[in-house]
Structure formats: C-alpha cells, structure tokens
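Incident log, structure service

09:12 report received: a user says their structure output differs between two submissions of the same chain.
09:20 pulled the input from the user's history:
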Amino acid sequence: MRLSLSDFDFDLPAELIAQQPAQKRDQARLMVVLRKSGRIEHARFAEIGEWLPPASLLVVNDARVVPVRLLGHKESGGRVEAVILEPPGSEAGPGAYELDALVKARRLRPGARLDFEAGVSAEVLKRGEFGRARLGFNFPEPPARVFEAVGLMPLPPYIKREGGSEADAALDRERYQTVYARSFGAVAAPTAGLHFTPELLEALRNQGHETAALTLLVGYGTFAPVREEDPTRHRLEAERMALDADTAGRVNRAQAAGRKVVAVGTTGVRSLEFAAGLGLPLRPYEGWCDLFIHPGFEFRVVDHMVTNFHLPKSSLLMLVAAFAGLELIREAYQTAVAEGYRFFSYGDAMLIL
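09:34 re-ran on a clean worker, output below:
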C-alpha cells in the first residue's frame, strides 16, 4: 500500500480541541468502532466494561509525567520557556547536567545564560532545529525536587495556558496524569489512560477483566510531527521501555487461553508489539523502543485498543489507521467531528474492537 502524508490529514474545527478535561475522568465520551462490521457506536467511557469481550486483559502504561516545563528569563530580561525532553532520573542528585529541551525564546544564541526559578540556571550549548536546544544546567537541588517545586506540566501546545491561573496549573497536575502513574520520567501523558478512575478499574475487575502494567516513558518522539511526504520514511525517537515478568506472563497466559489483550493507548500498543518482535511468547524486556507502526504492520499481540483522537498527519493517527484500517478510521473521524467529539489529550476516547 503506497502512502502519502495527505492520507492522514483531516479538517478539525478549532472548537473541538479540548482545552480542559471532562469534569469527571470517566464521563468523557467513548466511540466504539467495530472493525468486522464497520459499525460505529456511541457511549460514555464509564460504560467501557459493557463493550469489552469477557475476561479481557487491559494493559496500561504506568509512566508518570514529570512537570518539566520551566519558565525563566535571559540575562537581557527576555522571557524564556524550556521543556526538558529527557529529565534526569528520580534518584539523580544536584549538580551539572546537559539536557535536550524545546526552548521558546527570541534570539537565543549559544553561550546565552538562562535563569529559572529555584536558583536553577542553564547555558545554551547548542541550537537545533524546530526549537530544540542542548542546555547545560546547574541544579542546586535534585532535579526531581526542582521540577516538583516549580515546574509546570508539559501540556501540548494546542492546550492554551497563556497566563494560566494557579487553579489551571493545579488541575493539570492532577488530570494530566493517570491515576495509576508510577514510573518517573515521561514528558507527555499516555492520554488514553486519563479516563480511568480507581472506581472504574475496580468495577472492571469485578466484571472479570484483568489489568497489567508496563512502562513506556513517553517522550517528544511520540508527538514529533511527521515531515516526510512518504510517511514510511519517518523515524521515531527511541523511548525507554520496561516490560516485567509479571505483565509478560499475564499477556502470554491470556493469549494461550484465547482471552483478548486490550492495549490502553498507542504507547501500550507499541510496547507490546515491540516486545513481540523480539519473540513470542513475550519475555521481560528493559531498554529502548523505537517501533513506528503504520498501515501494513502485522499485529501479533494486541487484539483491541483504547485510544484518544489524534492530530492530523501524526504518527499516532497512522498507528490507529494500521490497527483499524485507514478507510474505517477516516469514517470514524468524520463521525467524531460531525457529532462534536472532543479531540486530543484532554478529549474523548475511542475503543477499537
């Protein structure tokens, strides 16, 4: 199948881009897409258990988002914003670090000094393309402590928080994080999981469904724009991944018993299919994942998936199209626009069966 970037484009009214999360996580809308029949149904996320096959295994990504968006100023006084793309680990101590960042500032040159809150300073070591820069930081305290004290959540640019209030910042700290987030180090949320509440997870277990967790520390690569006209030439930046023996065993047992494996989010899909590429049955793995899934990919583990509605021309939309079929996903997205679904990170969800 010959693909072009325009195959994954669509028109989206700006008012459908969710700027705030649903009042309650599981009250987001849920579009149910049935691949065999091509039927599209509408529900609430809280009803997801009624649509899942009996005794499904839901695999979630427990990555924890770090508030790595730092605000500061240049020596000249001009404002600067830096989003750290790969924060030091939770155990890292104070000291000097060279870190890649997305930087918003005017006339930023190598050698410039940047000052942030909490006594943190950085020097611009190298400028890159598309707003990227290599910064030399000096952290007077452990970086994780600094981020928690003064950092803001690294919301995507389509969520506008210009001059945002403290109430908005506090809301984002809570809601741009899954309720099961544990593994420190992500710079973006695995957003399909944002809809789950502790009560809904308990209800699913009471219905006979099972949950298991893996980790993919979501980085800039997941959301980086695809700029190749032939999208198959796009390369994803590698992200840290961990699949432990418990989750690998649960997936293997579910497959052996004929139970369905449901990946929560595109990051869950990529992680499971990357591990499958190393051999079946699944084995524990800890390392890097750079799997780019686009139409033509053969899925070996994931039977169904939960996902949000994604940006036009994005690698995430390409993964969903690979899973459900490009024509069906086009129809689903046209329906979502017509029905007023909310899009992107804080938006509504889709269950692909």
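09:41 both user submissions now match this output. Likely a transient worker issue. Closing.
09:42 reviewer note: The chain has two domains: 5-65+176-352, 70-151. The mean pLDDT is 94.
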